[in-house]
Design a protein that fits this description.
The chain is mainly α. It has 7 helices and no strands. The protein has one domain. It starts with 12 loop residues before the first helix and ends with a helix.
């Protein structure tokens, strides 16, 4: 993905910023999970917290992208699922605490 400074001209500045934030968080998720298993995730509270935070950032960035630049947001077919995961992490932690690791796998 291009950096915010070189994103396509049809995109708003705010959309570029949101996509940049999404990219950075997604790259962090990849680094954090490289070589990890679901068992590693279940046993590592710090890893769980780090993954949850990056998923929250991605989800919130998509929420804001939808508000600021709906046309760009519509290009992401999994937008609803991503925002839904963010909502479950932020608002429904008691429902997801024991089962979210399987959703991440």
């Amino acid at each position: 993905m291009k950096s915010p400074a070189t994103a396509p001209p049809f995109m708003t500045t705010e959309a570029r910023k949101r996509l940049h934030d999404i990219r950075l968080a997604a790259e962090a998720l990849c680094r954090f999970t490289d070589g990890k298993t679901v068992v590693d995730l279940q046993r590592d509270e710090i890893l769980q917290a780090a993954l949850e935070r990056k998923l929250e950032i991605i989800g919130e960035a998509f929420v804001q992208l939808r508000v600021e630049d709906a046309a760009t947001a519509e290009k992401f077919p999994d937008l609803r699922q991503i925002v839904g995961m963010r909502n479950r992490l932020v608002h429904g932690y008691y429902d997801t605490r024991n089962s979210y690791s399987s959703a991440l796998a």
